[in-house]
Structures are given as structure tokens and as C-alpha cells.
Amino acid sequence: MKKIKEYAKKIAKKIKTSLIKAKKDHVIKKFFKENKVFVTYIIVNLINSTMIRVFTINTLENYLSYKAVLADLAVIIILGSFSFLFKPKARYTYLCAFTWIFTMTCMINSIYYTFYTSYASFSMLSLTQYLGDVGDAVVQNVIQLKDVVYLFAPIVLMIVNKKEVKKGSYNKIEFKEIRRKKALKSLIAGVIIALIFVLNLTSLDISRFAKQWNKEYVVMKFGIYVYQINDGITSLEPKINSMFGVNKAVKEVETYYEDRKKNDKYASGTNEYTDIFKGKNVIVIHGESFQTINIDRSFNGVEVSPNMNKLAHEGLYFSNYYSQVSVGTSSDAELTFTTSLMPTQSGTAFVSYFDRKYIALPQIMQQNGYYTFSMHGNNADFWNRRVMHKNLGYEKFYSKKDYDITEENTIGLGISDKAFFKQSVEKMKKISEKHKKFYGLLIMLSNHTPFSDTEKYGPYDVNLKETVTNDDGTTSEVTYPYMEGTKLGNYFKSVHYADSAIGELINELDEAGLLDNTVIVFYGDHDARLPQKDYVRLFNYDKETDGIKSKDDPTYVNFDSYQYELNRKVPFIIWTKDHKYQKEIKDVMGMYDAMPTLANMFGVKASAYSLGHDIFNIKDNNIVVFPTGNWLTNKVYYNSQKSEYLTLNEGEVIGEDYIKKNTEYANKLLEVSNNVITYDVVRKEEEKEKAGGTSK
Ligand code: GP9
Ligand code: MN
Questions:
Q1: Mapped to the 3 state alphabet, what secondary structure does 193-214 carry?
Q2: Is 420 in the pocket of ligand 1 (CB under 6 A)?
Q3: Which atom of ligand 1 is least distant from the CA of 379?
Q4: Segment 241-255 mean pLDDT
Q5: Could you tell me the pTM of the whole model?
Q6: What single string gives the DSSP state of each residue in 354-385?
């Protein structure tokens, strides 16, 4: 230790004397003058990396994040230092190539952030074939000036280079030896900056960097370039991960579930809902981007979703139900709903881990004598469903090729929900003739972002209309624009269409006699990622100014980032034609609670790898864990990125213990879930059991 300290002191002294000498000899000034292109390369790329951070994360901590600046600088200089090994012309090409890579990184992340409020990941690259259609939606909606400003970097570099060429700077001969020295010196400078950066890291920084899922935090502390390099490496994880640390991970999973079995009193047990639907058919409706905000909302006395409102009030309505999706959106919703596992930390389960063994509700139902199927009017390969639906236990997957799709019956990404339902009912009629019991999934599509096919949705007015009495006693109608022309306004129009399709589906099913012995289960798959400012307008519209009320106005409704998160909830409804079970369940609930809850109702055994709970067992003790590490209970919404929380019941005091305990619970759950999938634990345990069985 003493030796290291002495050595460090020696180096520090050496650096100090060389810096003093450099200052005396005007070395830095000279370097700047002689290497304008290299210096420009550093400056422009540093400006870009700072811009992307500042434009995406609006916190003081981020604005003052010197660590990210150090990290960005180190990456830029270290990578740039090798350019000195080339002659000036080729050096420019080298620096230009890296500037383009850095610029594209910033641009892609800027666009991606607007859409997903997160940073881009290489693991998504393997998904590009599924993202094609959605990509159009992104282009239509999201590319803005703030996404393309980064292009200034290669442009400025080009201008500076041109000037240097004109000045004849490149005609001077630079010997190999000098070039090597320059490369080494800049490399050392880069490494020193990197060392200063590393010495400033806290253990929290390091742990979050390793886990990578708290992307905002990683970018805030490590800068965008280090984030992206790290992401590139971790995206290879699915392959590498499953090769190392298997035993440790499997042991950890085993211990977790043993402990859950012994100590979690809500993990099993019966309740008043046990077996209530035993033997009944099931039709699960996957409601694309359907949020709870639509329920019981009206414009000018006309409901946004009258049919869904009816289902909610006539059935079991879980009004604080949250989707737990990650980058796999629709597919993550399907995964969590059916398996009670969380999305994976890198990649998506449907695409990167399609070959793992899952225990899913359709498969459980199939083992209980049900015929299982899924229906979706999109390409079967989207989200790798063709493979994954089989894996989850759907015996047949009806996809795009099984539907008549014309230009007239197309909305947004594909076949309209109305046409899809109509054709699906015909298929279900045949299925019901052949099979005694069935479990089916219908995946909707029309209510998909960007919600711009307004002409096809049919009329729904999101203006504000008021009747005023004139001086002469007559009345007239005044119209204020309100939500017209906003993305949220268009969303309501789209939802109104999707709702009317659901209304038609219920009627068609009834006419076909398919409702008599069937339970309808509806879930919204995830929120619609609508702009926060549109919600502020929805709740705080000032018709006089056609703007937003002042914050001092006593009727002003606060809609900050916490309200935004809480508002991302989606409806979960269980409905039967006889309206026998009518209740609103207000306890918070996650998508991972669906399988245990439904399994109990249908009298089948839930997966032993469930992470959620039957809501009628756990009730108000429930916790919803999000892939970001955030969590929600009936008392608190906790933001793990900021290590802050919002108390949900006014005046209630929350102890630090409560936060600590739940945060640990959430982190552990995410880790176990990821291990179950990554290491294919279900298969391993089954194989172990089999081997044990034969040796007995
Ligand atoms: C695609 C549809 C939409 O078939 O399910 O997927 P999303 O973009 O919501 O993940
Ligand atoms: Mn979706």
C-alpha cells in the first residue's frame, strides 16, 4: 500500500512539473494551433454529448454533472488519440468517422428518448424487423429540430478541415516518430481524465452502471458515449450471460421461491373467488394502448369509451392496474400477463429469450383440457409471436395471413379492430363447435400510436362546446378548441373507435351464443406515451385564452412527473354476461398479478414461478414493481432514479424502513425474474426433477 502511495505521489509530481513546463513553453497553445481539426473534434463532440443530456434529463443534478463531462471527454480523447498515427488527411477521415458515430448516437437517442423516455439499446437492433412499421410512426411524430441539431458537429469539423487544407497545413511533413509521440501524449491525457473520473465514482454509480436498467442515471453520471459502449457490451449478454454464473443464479432463484413459499402468506390460498369460473371459456382482449384515463370520461356529454365503461361497471373492474412493460411493449405485456414474470433487463423475452421454458396461463389452461388459441391481424413475426405464442401454450395462432385485409378495412398499422373482431368471431364460432372449452387471446391493433388516422376513426368531438344565452334571450353554441389538434385529443378519437369495435365484438359474440358460458377478460397493454403537456391542458384548460390556467388559480390541477407515472395505468376488467360479479377493486395491482388472480378463479394452479399475487389474497398489501426499479403501493410511488417518493395518502407518515424494505423487495424481484428467464431456470429445474425421479 505504502509503495502504491509513493508511486502515485511520484506520478503526480511528474505531471505537475510537466504541466508547469508545458505552461512555460506555451505547449498547449502550440498544440491547439497545430492541431485545429483534432481540437475541433473534441469540442464539437463534447458539446453534442452535453446537449443530449441537457435536452433529455431536466434536473439540476444532471446540469451540474461534471462526471459525465469527464467521461465523455475521456472517451472522445482516447478514441481520437489514435488518429495521430495517421497522416493529416487520413487523420481527418478517422476523426470525421468518429464524429459521425457520436453524432448519430446523439440523434438516435434524442428521438428514442422522446418516444420511450429512455435511451436506445443495441439489443433493439435485433428487433429492427419488428420495428419497421412502428418506425414510421416515430418519424411521423417525433423528429424535431432538437433531434437534428447534433449535425452541426460533422459540419463544423468539415469547415475547419477545409480551412486547414486551404492554408496548406497538411503540406508540412510530420515524421512517424512525432506522430507516435502525439498519439501517446493524447492517449495519456485521455487516460488521466478517465482515472480522475473513475476515482470520483460512488458505489451507487458503479452498481447502477453494472445493472444498466436505470438508463437515465447511467447517462447522467457516465455520459452518453460510455452508456452506449456499455450497452453494446451488455447487449451481448443474452449469449454470454447464460454461459457464466449459472449455478449461483439457479441457487438464488431456488432460495427465493422456497422463501416465498414459506414466508409469503399471500402467495397461495383460497378466497371467495376461488373456482368461480371453473370450466368456463375465456376470451382475453389485449387492448392496445388503452389507458384507464378513458374510463368514465366524456366530452360534451359524449363518453370516450361507452362500451368499456359498461363492462367496467357490470364486471370486476381493477381501477389501479399497472402495466409493467419495458422496451418490448406489447410483447412484454403478453409475457407478464401470462407468466407473472417481469420483462428482461436487456433485450426482450419474446425475441432474445424465445427458446427458454415458460409456465404460462394458456399452457396451464391447455393442460386443464382447454383448446387454446391467439388471434392478431398483424404479421406473425412481429415481436417473434409466431415462435413465442407456441412456447406460451397457444395451440394455434391466427395472424395476418388468416384475415381478409383490404385498403378499406385498414387503420393505422393494419386491419381495423372492427374487421378483425368480425372475422375472429367467425373463427371462434367454428372453434366452439369443435371444442368443449377454449381459452383465446384477441390482440387489438387500431389504437396504436401515432393516432393520426382520424378520418377513419369516425366522428368524435374533443372541442369544448358551451351554450350561451344571448341578450335577446335566444341561445347559441360557442366552440373552444380544447383538445382538438393535440395528440391526446387524437388519442381520445382513436380510443372512441376502438371502444366501438369492442361494443360490436360483444354484440357479435352474443349473437353467436358465445357469451353464455364465457368470461371476457380485458387488459390495456401499456400506456400510449402521450405528452405530459397535453394532460396539463386536459386538466387546466382556460377557454378565455385558449391556453393553460395560471398555477396560482385555485382550480389548477397539478400534473407533474409523478402524476404522469400514476396516470399510466390501464384497465383490467373481468366480465360475464350475467353481471354476477360486480365490483371496483381499488388496490394497486400489476400485470404480474393477473395470472395468479385468474388461475384461482378458474380453479387451476398458477405457475410456481409467479412473482405477482392473487389480488384477492394480498389486497391492500400489494406492491407493483416496474422494470425501472420504481415501485408502487397503496401508500407510495417510489422513483428509483431519483431515490425520491410521493406519498399517496395525505398526511400519512412513511418511515424510511418502509422505503428500504420495498426497494430491496423490488430489486430482488427484478433480479430473480431476470435470472429465471436468462438462465432458463424453469427448464433446468424440470430436468433436475426428472433426473431425480428416474434415479429413485
Ligand atoms: C404489433 C402490435 C403493437 O403487432 O402488437 O406492438 P407495440 O408497438 O405496442 O409493442
Ligand atoms: Mn402495444
A1: HHHHHHHCCCHHHHHHHHHCCC
A2: no
A3: 4
A4: 87
A5: 0.77
A6: TTS----HHHHHHHTT-EEEEEESS-TTGGGH
